[in-house]
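Re: the multi-chain job from yesterday

Posting the exact lines I submitted so nobody has to dig through the queue logs.
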Amino acid sequence: MRELAPGAITESEEIAKLKEKLQRDIRRSAYVFRVDCGGCNGCEIEIFAAISPVFDAERFGIKLVASPRHADILLYTGAMTRAMRLPAIRTYHATPDPKIVISYGACGCSGGIFHDLYCVWGGTEPVVPVDLYIPGCPPTPAATIYGFALALGLLEQKLKTRHQVQGRDDAVVPAHPRIPLRMRIDLEREARRMAGYRQGRIIVERFMRFLESEDPIPFAERLAAYLAHEDDPRLTEIVARLTDVAIQRGLP
Amino acid sequence: MLKLLKELLRTGDATVKYPFAPLPVKPGVRGKPEFAGQRCIACAACTIACPATALTMATDPAAGTRTWQLDLGRCIFCARCEEVCPTGAIVLSDNFELSVRKRDDLLMTAEFTLTNCRTCETPFAPAKEVGYVIALLVRAGMPEEDAEGRRAQLETCPGCRRHADVARISRTSLVRLAGLPA
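And the result, structure tokens for all chains:
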């Protein structure tokens, strides 16, 4: 955690107790005030998507308000820039106690991609005490709804901190033992060239699973059935190229 | 009035049932990166690729361990880690329910043991990475005993290897200068 910014707010015990009561009793009437501390506006767009009829945050009584004096929940978005430190603190003080502070988006949670910039204090946390973190870049409307549901006590938190330790004789074997390494490299390269890194990898992994499988049905037939099922001309072209590469590298 | 009711029935309910029912997600959604520690070789490719430095690695030479860490609070879900991972240990799932009350719950760590250099005895490379390199050499067509024979070389740190090389080269060139049989 980064050191606290000058003027950082700490919560008194009395307020913490009141806040517990608020979280128990707030139920379905939560007024939200949004504070943009220096974000890219992506988070704002997703917040407005979350109050649109499709996700309809007003089902839970969540309403965006225009003044911090009306708010129960403060939503801090964006990395805390130097210029926004005082306005963020003033907003906090302007909101009546007890209040819930939500840190929204990767930038709000930790400073995100801007975390080590000269002009930011990091996320919301070095300036204002945070009760809930909604990570994402930006969080999707569904993730936003989940965050609000968590804040209002409708749902339980699913994520827990995790620590893994390597076993004594853990070993990793290269994948796809039945495909020659040279062929695998060429296939992966061609798939990446045609479909980009992520989709290319997904396509080539599926292709290699088809190649390796010991299904009695011939490879070409299985592939044709798969392509007919997917019905995507882009995929058909890429898979045809991959088959060419495999034949060049000695596919029987 | 009847017309309006008919129209309402036709359009139906636009609002999703989430969070009271699971939300069906589209394929290709990039959610929480799922990490399979048993497939990871701690090569640190993901930590170099990560644009937000959500993935970091720290070496503890005293304990002989290297700790990998994922900070979901910093992750921008770009899937660069998935792209560069040579073993497929990290894959983005469609899990989007990541909100937490404590900052620490956004952290995930994994600890790997390091191999000691055979010459200077300082830990330098993850044991799993060395094992993976040997397995890959075998897969590339090198006979198994040859690949195992390389283990001594692979388990020597770059500094010590350089020292050994210099010593070997100077010895052979001296031999050549003196016109002695090698």
